[in-house]
Amino acid sequence: MARAELAAAGLRPRALHPAGTDTLTARERAAADLTVRDQDAAAVLGVDAAAVGRLLSAVYRKLGTDRTGLAQALGNTGRESGDPAGRG
77 or 44: whose pLDDT is higher? Predict the structure, then answer.
């Protein structure tokens, strides 16, 4: 909707190019994986809720999705992917 309004105003909005999951940092990927599994990312990662919010905001921006599309954007098949804290 916003893109259509920008175009109607004569502006040319930049094309959306969602980045792949390989652009996520280890902490961003861990926060995203924990969120998809409905686990407490703050407790597992040892950070506060605000830090998790910043991590997830970066994830959503990089992947071009929101919470509802996160599992699909991650290509999550339900398998556990290593250490969720990003330690290995």
Answer: 44
